[in-house]
Amino acid sequence: MDDSDEALMARVARGDQPAFRALARRHLPAMVGLARRVLGNTADAEDVAQEAMLRVWTHAPRWQPVAAFKTWLTRIVVNLCLDRKRRAAWVDLEEAGDLVDRTPDAVERMETNERERQLQSAIEKLPDRQRAAIVLTYSEGMSNAQVADILDTSVSAVETLLIRGKQNLRRALGGLIDEEG
């Protein structure tokens, strides 16, 4: 009987538990070591290696021997380690401190709404082509080239319209535009 990793995986794909145990005995210690070196944490390393072996079991029917089994398993372990390292570390509740509510309070919302109303009113008072250039660029997120096509003009003309429009808005708003960015 062929005891290569690939032959064992073919048997695992058919639900052969002894073949899975043979693969686990063969590779689990090395995968724990790999995970420990990548993570630097023994408890997490064992969890990662076990999760990788669980994926071997669940994905066995779809596994294709394109690469060597050990290469595939190593890729799974490394990806799981990298995923773990990307996740934020858990902090004990006592160490976490108070939660900060980042939602704006009523006063902030009122101030924001008032600034937006003033800005919209000032935009409405701009000359038509300046207003169109400002709205298409900043509200609609279009490039200067797209705006130039829409307004049937050149990119440099759009840039001029934007400069003049922003100058007019700064004058109308008395510094509000500089506060906002």
From TrEMBL:
Similarity remark: Belongs to the sigma-70 factor family. ECF subfamily.
Extract the InterPro entries matched here: RNA_pol_sigma-70-like, RNA_pol_sigma-70_dom, RNA_pol_sigma70_ECF_CS, RNA_pol_sigma70_r2, RNA_pol_sigma70_r4_t2, RNA_pol_sigma_r2, RNA_pol_sigma_r3/r4-like, WH-like_DNA-bd_sf
The RNA polymerase sigma-70 region domain is annotated at 23-90
Example GO molecular function: sigma factor activity
Q: Specify the RNA polymerase sigma factor 70 region 4 type domain's residue ranges.
A: 117-169
Taxonomy-wise, where does this protein's organism fall, top ranks first? Answer: Bacteria, Pseudomonadati, Pseudomonadota, Alphaproteobacteria, Hyphomicrobiales
Q: Which UniProt keywords apply?
A: DNA-binding, Sigma factor, Transcription, Transcription regulation
Q: Does the keyword Transcription apply?
A: yes
- Keyword presence, DNA-binding: yes
Q: Name one GO biological process term.
A: DNA-templated transcription initiation
Please, which domain of life does this record's source organism belong to? Answer: Bacteria
Q: What is this protein called in UniProt?
A: RNA polymerase sigma factor
Q: Which residues form a coiled coil?
A: none
Q: Extract the PANTHER family matched here.
A: RNA POLYMERASE ECF-TYPE SIGMA FACTO, RNA POLYMERASE SIGMA FACTOR HI_1459-RELATED
Q: Which NCBIfam families match?
A: PRK05602.1 (NF004113), sigma70-ECF (TIGR02937)
